Amino acid sequence: MKYIFVTGGVVSSLGKGLAAAALGTLLEQRGFSVLMQKFDPYLNVDPGTMSPFQHGEVYVLDDGAETDLDLGHYERFTSGKLSQLNNLTSGQVYENVIARERRGDYLGSTVQVIPHVTDEIKARIHEVSKKMNADILITEIGGTTGDIEGLPFLEALRQFKDEVGHENVAFLHVTLVPFIKAAEELKTKPTQQSVAKLREIGIAPDVIICRAEQPVDDDSRNKIAMFCNVAREAVVPFLDIKGTIYEAPLKMFEQKLDRIVCERLGLETDPPDLLEWRNMVDRIVNPTHVVKVAVVGKYIELMDAYKSIYESLTHAGAANDTHVEVLRVDSSHIEKQGAEALLGEVDAVLIPGGFGERGVEGKVQAARYARENGMPYFGICLGMQIATIEFARNVCGLDNANSTEFDEETPHPVICLLEDQKEVTEKGASMRLGTYVTHLEEGSHSFDLYQKKVINERHRHRFEFNQNYREQFEKAGLKLVGSSPDGLLGEIVEIPDHPFFVAVQFHPEFQSKPTAPHPLFKGFVAAALERRK
Ligand code: GLN
User: Fold this and answer.
1) pLDDT higher than 90, residue 1
2) Distance between CA 505 and CA 482 in Å, rounded?
3) What is the DSSP string of 376-391?
C-alpha cells in the first residue's frame, strides 16, 4: 500500500480537501483503488456537536459517522465508500488513550504524547489499511502547520514514514502564495516558512501545491523549489477555479500532479482516463437553461453550512442541462418581509435540515407559499417536518400544530420524539444516524424518480412524523409514500396534486455525485425548469 499525506500551511480554507480529492480522482482514473481519510486535530470527538457556524456542514456516512465536510468531497470525487474509520479527531485519539490507561494497558508507564498518542494515530492508519482494501490511502491533516493541536499528528506521520519506508510515502503540502498589490508581486516567504516548520518536525514535502489568485511565475516557482528543496515541477500552482470545483482534477492533471506523485511512489500506469469527468464538467460549465432555486435556511450566510445541498443541485442541474442559480434566503427575513417578497421571483424552494426554533416560522411561511402557488418544493429532514407542520396548520386546520422540538406544549405534535429518543440525554452521536431502508409506494412521485421500491438513504435526526395524524393528512391530500420497512417511521410525504411537493426525512444530498446525480434532486430541478418554461 502507498500512503499520501496532505498538510496545509500559512492559512486555513486553502482548499486542501479539494486538492486531496482531486488527486484521488486522478489516481482512481489511473486504475488504482483509492481510499481517503481526514485527521482533524480538534478535541471534539466528532463534529456532530459543533454549530455549522463553527464548522460548516456535518457530513454523515452510511455507518452513521458524523464527519468533516471534506469527506463529502472525497465521496463525490472518488468511488470509495467511507466509514467512521476515515475521520479521526484528537478527541477520539485521547478518548482511546485514556480508556486504555484506565484499563491498565499501559500499566507502569507514564502516558505521554510520544509514544502513546502518536502510536494511537499510527494504529488508525494501519487499521484502515488492513480493513479497507485499497492501493493508495490519501490522508488529509486538518488545520495549519504550526498549530499546537496538529503536532502529535505530524510527529506520528514522521514516525510512520520511517516505519513503512520512505518509498511508500509521499507528502503534499498545500500553501498560500499571496499577491501583494502595491508591489505587484507574488510572495513566496510564507510558503518557505511553513515548509521550514514542517522540516523542523522531520517532514520534507515532496510536492508543494501553491494556492494563488495570480498565475505563479517561473521566478516564484524556482524560488519555492530551491528554498523548499523540491523539484521545480513539484511546485504545483493551484489557481482559483472560475467554473466549477469539479475542474480541480483537470487543472491538477495539467500540472502533472498525478504523474509526479506516481513517480515519487514508484507507481506505473497509463495516464488517467478523464473522458467521463471532462464531459461532466462540460455539462456543468456550459448549460442551455437556467433556473432559480431558493434555499431557505438559517445558516445561509455561510457557504459551507449546506455544502452537499449546493453540490447536489449542481449535479442535478448538469443532468438537466441547466444552471441552477441558488438564492440563499435567511428564513428570519421571510418572517419580517413575507414569503412573496423573497420567493416571488424564484422557480422552486428547497428547505434543508436544521436544528432549533430560530427561523422555523419563516420556513413554515416558505412551505406554504410553495404549496399554495404550485411552486416545486423539496423538503429535506427539517424541511420535511416543516412541510408537515404547515399542512397540519393551514390545510387540516390543526391550530398551533408543531414539532415538540419547537413547542413542547403544542396541542398537535405532528412531529414528535419516539419513546426511545425521550430517554436520550447525551447530545453526541445520539440521533438516528446513518443508512436506513425506506419502502416506497408504487405510483408515487418518489417511486417514479427512483424507479425502485426499496431505497437506502442516510439519516441524521431525532424527531419523527407522528403516525397518529397520518389518516387525517392523507384525507386532506398529504400522502405518506415512504416508510421504514416495519411501517412505523414516516420517511417521505408528498402532495400528489401539486407539480412537485416532495419532502423526505433523510438526507439525499449525501449520496449525490457529479457523475451520478441523485434522482430526487434531478426531479426537483426538472420541475423547476418546467415551471420556468
Ligand atoms: N431538528 C430535526 C430533528 O432532530 C431535524 C434534523 C435535521 O434536519 N437534520 O429531527
Assistant:
1) yes
2) 9
3) -EEEETHHHHHHHHHH
Instruction: Please give the model's pTM, rounded to 2 decimal places.
Output: 0.93
Task: Read off the pLDDT of residues 504-533 as tens digits, 9 standing for 90 and up.
Answer: 999 999 999 999 999 999 999 999 999 998
Position 23 confidence tier, pLDDT thresholds 50, 70, 90: very high
Contact 306, 352 (CB under 8 A): yes
Ligand 1 atom with least separation from CA of 353: 8
Does position 301 have pLDDT exceeding 90, yes or no? no
The Cα angle at residue 453 between residues 376 and 71, in degrees rounded to 5: 70
3-state secondary structure (DSSP) of residue 278: helix
**Virtual CA dihedral for 340, 346, 348, 353, nearest 10 degrees?**
-70
pLDDT at 464: 95
* Candidate of 57, 416, 421, 462 to mutate for ligand 1, largest count of ligand atoms within 8 Å of Cβ: 462
Q: Which amino acid is at 13?
A: S
Mean of the per-residue pLDDT values of the chain: 94
Q: Which residue has the CA at smallest separation from atom 1 of ligand 1?
A: 355
- Among the atoms of ligand 1, which is closest to the Cα of residue 383? 8
Query: What type of residue sits at position 12?
Result: S
- CA distance linking residue 43 with residue 143, whole number of Å: 12
Assigned C-alpha cell, 424: 436520550
pLDDT of 48 reads 83
- Side chain identity at residue 6, one-letter code: V
**Higher per-residue confidence, 157 vs 418:** 157
pLDDT tens digits, residue range 446-456? 999 999 999 99
Rounded Cα–Cα distance for residues 219 and 246 (Å): 29
Relative orientation angle of helices 257-265 and 16-29, to the nearest 10 degrees: 70
Distance of alpha carbon 155 from alpha carbon 160, whole angstroms: 9
User: Is the distance from CB of 296 to CB of 334 less than 8 angstroms?
Assistant: yes
Strand order in the sheet with 87-89: 87-89, 34-40, 136-141, 2-8, 169-176, 207-212, 235-239
